[in-house]
Design brief:
With about 200 residues, the protein is of the alpha/beta class. Among the domains are: about 70 residues, Ubiquitin-like (UB roll) (Roll); about 60 residues, Orthogonal Bundle (DNA polymerase, domain 1), CATH 1.10.150.320. Helices cover about 35% and strands about 10% of the residues. The protein contains seven helices and five strands; from the N terminus they run H-H-E-E-H-E-H-E-H-H-H-E. The strands form two sheets. A three-stranded mixed sheet has the order 2-1-3, with helices on one face. Strands 4-5 form a two-stranded parallel ribbon. A hairpin with a 5-residue loop joins strand 1 and strand 2. The longest helix is centred in the N-terminal third of the chain and has 23 residues. It is elongated, with a radius of gyration of 39 Å.
Length: about 200
């Protein structure tokens, strides 16, 4: 058989022989590729009944629970989105009643989980400060977010209060607040009746 192949190849010129080998190689490669399935569509098939969309899915934000009480139309406990403001909680509770003291709360303030939002009435004796703090806040046990509920106390000042408490073994008297940087006589006067040791 080798003799026959040699005789057959001798009849071709070197140039024709190269062309024939190239064509045979291309055909062999193409046959391999198509038979092995390399060129098949490898995109994943989606099972029937599953809908797809190109729109990104909305990620739901965590929920908080807020107790809205006082002069609102529907007092109660409401589940709201994290980052909700007092304004949103009042709306969830049906809005203010006709007797509500709307200036008693900061409508733009962000709410915390587990908070009670107390809306005072116009003829009530409850002050603006008391309406934002539903009970006395312990200077020695309160978290930073609880201290921020005090009027005039923001995140930075609440942090300094906790730092002073830690460094000095706790508050021994309400007047110790005056030793915290940023608390002067005026601020102390506005919070002293809202805190306890």
């Amino acid at each position: 058989m080798l003799v026959w192949i040699k005789e057959l190849l001798a009849e071709f010129s070197p140039r024709a022989l190269k062309a024939t080998i190239t064509v045979l190689a291309v055909v062999a490669f193409g046959t391999y590729v198509f038979s092995s399935g390399i060129w098949k569509d490898n995109t994943a098939t989606i099972p029937k009944g599953i809908e797809t969309t190109d729109e990104p899915r909305a990620i739901s934000s965590p929920k908080i629970y807020v107790h809205v009480a006082g002069s609102v139309k529907s007092p109660g406990i409401y589940q709201l989105e994290s980052g909700t403001r007092v304004y949103d909680a009042v709306l969830a509770a049906g809005g203010f009643t006709a007797k509500a003291n709307q200036a008693s709360v900061n409508m733009a303030r962000a709410l915390n989980d587990g908070e009670q939002l107390l809306i005072s009435s116009q003829n009530g004796v409850q002050s603006f400060e008391n309406s934002m703090v539903s009970s006395l806040i312990s200077l020695n046990q309160a978290s930073a977010s609880q201290l921020e509920e005090l009027p005039g106390v923001g995140p930075a000042l609440a942090g300094r209060m906790i730092d002073w408490r830690t460094a000095n073994g706790g508050f021994k008297a309400k007047e110790d607040l005056l030793n915290v940087a940023g608390i002067g006589d005026k601020l102390f006067a506005s919070v002293k009746d809202l805190v306890t040791l």
